[in-house]
Design goal:
0% helix
């Protein structure tokens, strides 16, 4: 499954990752994605998740951190096929 999220770096170099788990609000796994350069443009980031348990619902959110602080995206979910 591919998960994605949008990040607004606000003009500062930004580290981006996803937090993933099987319980809403509790994320057991951090999946690094990339570093976004110092840009003012909103950027879409994504990562491919493998070895998922079929029929299991996964919850995730994108996280971005830069010199301004840390920001958490809204939680989303999907069920592995």
């Amino acid at each position: 499954a591919t998960i994605s999220g949008a990040v607004d770096p606000g003009g500062a170099e930004t580290n981006v990752w996803f937090e993933v788990g099987t319980i809403s609000g509790w994320y057991a796994l951090s999946v690094p994605t990339q570093v976004i350069g110092a840009t003012a443009a909103t950027t879409t980031v994504s990562v491919e998740l493998t070895e998922l348990a079929r029929g299991t619902t996964y919850y995730y959110r994108v996280v971005a951190q830069n010199s301004v602080g840390i920001s958490y995206g809204s939680e989303r979910s999907f069920t592995a096929q």
